[in-house]
Every structure is written in C-alpha cells, then in structure tokens.
C-alpha cells in the first residue's frame, strides 16, 4: 500500500523483521533511560508493553494456524454469557472462576451468534444493588 502511495522508489529504508524488532527494542524506555544525557521527558520511549505488542505482532506474521494450536481453546470450553443471563452473584462467581480476560456474549440460546465481549475486570468491578 505504501509503495502505491509513495512510489516504489521512495528512498525509505526497508528492514527485515529481525532488524525491525531490534530497532523497536532500542526505542524502549529502559534502553533510552540508559542514555541519560539525551533524556528529555517522561514521554520518551516505548513502554515494555508496547515493545512486546509490536514485536509480538511482527513475529506472528510468519506463524501458521497449526503453530498457534497450543494457545487456542475449543469454544465449548470457553465461559460465555447469554443476553438472557441474569446479573447476580452466581454470574459474578462464574466470571471470576473462568479466569478469562474477555468474556464472549452470545445472543439468547445460540452460542454461535456472538455479539461481542465484555472485560471481566470491568464487569467484576461493578457493584450489585
């Protein structure tokens, strides 16, 4: 896409995935903090979370689905909430025991119609009346 916008000979350097990951890691706050004389403020550099997200995304570009199978969970083993469920203490317990960060919400009784997800952390912080 950028080649179309900028033209194929746009003079920008092209990095391999390994070079790009190394460049990202050099922009981490921890690395920049080592260069105290160049530090200009608290917003300088990437957080460790940002570095991990970016380098993880770069690493995933070469993965095939079969390589991710250890991280995948069958849908029938995932804790899900129906739009018909009543929000009560039992639901709170179920979410807490599931240890999932995001809880899929499905429509009615059809677990195949997933409307979205809710954050378990935010949900558990709600107060029951």
Key traits:
129 residues, CBS domain Like, alpha+beta, three-stranded mixed β-sheet, 3 strands
Report helical residue fraction.
25-40%
How many domains? 2
Count of DSSP H/I helices: 6
| Rg from alpha-carbon coordinates | 22 Å
Outline: elongated
Distance between the termini: 52 Å
- Note the main sheet: 3 strands, mixed
What does the model show?
With 129 residues, the chain is an alpha+beta fold. It has 2 domains: 2-71, no CATH class; 75-124, CBS domain Like. Helices cover 37% and strands 14% of the residues. The chain is built from 6 helices and 3 strands. It has helices at 2-6, 17-26, 29-33, 48-60, 89-98, 120-124; strands at residues 81-82, 102-107, 110-119. Strands 1-2-3 form a 3-stranded mixed beta sheet. A hairpin with a 2-residue loop joins strand 2 and strand 3 (110-119). Helix 2 (17-26) packs antiparallel against helix 4 (48-60). The longest helix has 13 residues, at 48-60. It is elongated, with a radius of gyration of 22 Å. The model has no long low-confidence stretch (mean pLDDT 78).
Layout of strands and helices, then pairs:
Elements: H1 2-6, H2 17-26, H3 29-33, H4 48-60, E1 81-82, H5 89-98, E2 102-107, E3 110-119, H6 120-124
Parallel strand pairs: 1-2
Antiparallel strand pairs: 2-3
């Amino acid at each position: 896409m950028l080649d179309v916008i900028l033209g194929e000979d746009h003079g920008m350097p092209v990095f391999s995935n390994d070079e790009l990951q190394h460049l990202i890691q050099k922009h981490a706050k921890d690395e920049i903090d080592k260069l105290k004389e160049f530090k200009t403020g608290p917003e300088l550099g990437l957080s460790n979370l940002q570095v991990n997200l970016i380098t993880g995304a770069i690493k995933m570009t070469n993965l095939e689905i079969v390589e991710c199978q250890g991280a995948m969970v069958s849908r029938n083993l995932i804790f899900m909430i129906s739009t018909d469920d009543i929000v009560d203490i039992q639901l709170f317990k179920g979410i807490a025991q599931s240890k999932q960060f995001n809880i899929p919400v499905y429509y009615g009784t059809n677990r195949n119609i997933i409307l979205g997800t809710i954050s378990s952390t935010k949900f558990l912080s709600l107060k029951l009346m």
